[in-house]
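re: ur question from earlier - yeah i can do the single chain one, its not a big deal. heres the input i used so u can compare w yours
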Amino acid sequence: MRQIIILFLFFHSILNAQYLLPQPQEYNLLQGKFKITEEIKVRIPNSSEDLYQYTSRFIERMQYKSGIIFKTHEPQDTSTSKEIVIITNKFSENLDLETNESYSINISSSIIKITSENNVGAYRAMETLLQLINTDKGEAFFINCNIIDKPRFKWRGLLVDVCRHWIPLDIIKRNIDAMASVKMNVLHLHLTDDQGFRIESKKFPKLHEMGSDGKYYTQNEIKDIIKYANERGVRVVPEFDIPGHISSWLVGYPKLASIDQNYELPKGYGVFKATLNPSQDFTYRFLDTLLTEMCLLFPDKYFHIGGDEILVN
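and the output i got, formated as tokens:
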């Protein structure tokens, strides 16, 4: 009989772990459950503004998923009998490849304890906790368990091509929310291609004025995207595709081209003749000014310059 119970708990543990995306490094199922009631409070003994705001959003989402409205809607700093407590050692304002995203979750019948090295690890733990919410016969609860987790890969990115398919700002933010929910941490924004130059340049305004059909992000909108992503533990890495795939550049600045002709924004897809001229100083001065402007806008250590195929003939 004892062997049957152990076997049941083993398979039940595997089944519960399969609900999590991505699956944690360690998941140990325990007996009992933590019931979600309106009395629950979320406590942060040591907080920052970003962690406080993330936790506030977590509380709102937890109420939505469980169907239970809490009496206290904001994070607290005093202990209670039924609580979720978030303990973190330090706060990372600047995300990079070495940011520690590890965390642990300990769920017992009276307390849920999240422990992380920094606020980003706490973000990841809250997303795991949201996935662990169970509902049955009008009751919402967490099954007691211990979780220890850290990323298998440091770079977990999503490439979004806004050149061939324009994506408004609010949809970009929804994508960032979705990325955070499954612990992805790099938004790779493909901002320039033959079909569009999708970012404002104050140094060379013809790039976005003539190369975007009016669909581009202002520099203030880019700053908003970066801030929104950073608050959710997501870095933003821009891509400016050179030396090919630059039809949108050449509409306003044809002097950059290897072939002297008039250029238009392509309506179709493929590999086009538009290529930067590598044999003139003007090209390098232009790139130096433009990329300096854009590097000052994007704080990440990484900056993608494309390198896609060109027509070598």
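Helices lie at 2-17, 49-66, 119-131, 169-181, 206-210, 219-230, 247-252, 281-297. not sure if urs matches, ping me
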